[in-house]
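Problem: given the chain below (185 residues), write out its structure.
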Amino acid sequence: MKNKLHFISWLGTVGLIVASISFAGTAVAQTESKKKAEAAETATKSEAGAKSSISDKDKAFIKKAAKGGMMEVAMGEMAEKQAKSDDVKAFGKRMVADHSKAGDELKAIADKKGVKMPAKKHEMKWTSDKAYMEMMVKDHEKDLAEFQAQAKEGIDPDLKEFAEKTAKMVEEHFNQAKEVQGKLK
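Solution.
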């Protein structure tokens, strides 16, 4: 009888231990689910905050820089195919490569910030290598000032960093455009 009582007591203790472990496992699972839900909500709020926090001035810069970059690519492609001068062709090729890369970087920032990029449509033409290079000198001079201003006065840190880095590239283009323009007769 004593053995039976001891066995029942032991069985009850084991039952309590199993029930406690089950309860603890459920509580841990619920806590983990709650933490994951809170983390997802925080991430969503952060993402929404990033999208809504960009200023109108920064949005305008994104759109203007995107349009300008697309124009540089379109005109560069045209120069690669139609230019008479090898220097102008090489300049056009560089415009395509550099501005395509910068455009991809800008698109990634715009997507992250929830800013829609403009559509790609550029129907510009030029009549001569000299006319193209003259346009490139003027355009890069203007763009350089805009990128430098954004790097200094912009609000969004990602966009400021992009503008600062890209301003260096635009300055190189400006200097190369002046050099190529000087070689043309």
